[in-house]
Amino acid sequence: MSGSPSVDNLGASFNSYFEILPALSEAERKEVFRVRHAVYCHDLHFEDEREDGEERDEHDAHSILCLLRTRGANPRPVGCCRMILPGKPPQDSQLPFEHHCANVLDRRIIDPSQLDRQRIAEVSRLAVMSDFRRRKDEQHVPIAISDHDFEQNSAAARFPFIPVGLYLACVAISLRVGIDHLFVLTEPRLAKHFSRIGFDIRQIGSGIEHRGLRVPSHLSPAAIRRDLKPMLHSLYAVVEESIERAYRAAGQ
Q: Cα Rg for the chain, rounded, in angstroms?
């Protein structure tokens, strides 16, 4: 999506193009798995291609999946992410980042092992379909943000609806289901850019090599919701209502 939408009306702009929802039905979950396969297996070759065209792993059984798609009579998948919850029993299971970053976490900042395991989650498998990654520097990453996305006075400026929408969905879902702490392994520049629009993302350890340089980071859903910049209020409201509508429709 290109152009420079009005920052005063981000919610309406997002809502006119996209729908975001937790993938609660089997059909919706399969749609998420197909997006991940298209991005992680076919485009980026991070994972082997599968005969069924679905990328999934052992963590999906205890994850909340999120799907972003276009609006209209024939909606198209746009992107996805997931929130991995600790397995059962939660006190005996690690989130993937805890395993990958065991030797680099600064536990003086926050120690995941000391938190209520039922109130933590890890954001992972963020992916955007190639049709929505058109810029030349976006074809080799699953999701991207450019410096130009935040230059409101630039002719090249465009608001990064897709990644921001996915992260806001994780915030809204977290607040709904009682998650106090979100963790993510992310590119340093992605964390920097999200900080510029008011997301409190704290680096909690040194970088590791994991499909490129990644840093472990922490987000507080409650703090993000409380401290959202005014320009994001309408966008968050649209995302939150879409999430709530999906849960209500599923009887949850």
A: 17
Q: Please state the rounded mean pLDDT for residues 197-204.
A: 86
| DSSP secondary structure of the chain | --S---GGGHHHHHHHHEEEEE--SHHHHHHHHHHHIIIIIIIS-SS---TTS----GGGGGEEEEEEEE-SSS--EEEEEEEEPP-SSGGG---HHHHHTTTTB-TTT--GGGS-GGGEEEEEEEEE-GGG--STTSTTSSS---GGGG-TTSTT----HHHHHHHHHHHHHHHHHT--EEEEEE-HHHHHHHHHTT--EEE-B--EESSSEEEEEEE-HHHHHHH--HHHHHHHHHHHHHHHHHHHHTT-
Q: What pLDDT is attached to residue 140?
A: 52
20-52 tens-digit pLDDT: 999 999 999 999 999 999 999 999 999 999 999
pTM score of the predicted model? 0.88
The full length of the chain comes to 252
Whether pLDDT at 109 is above 50: yes
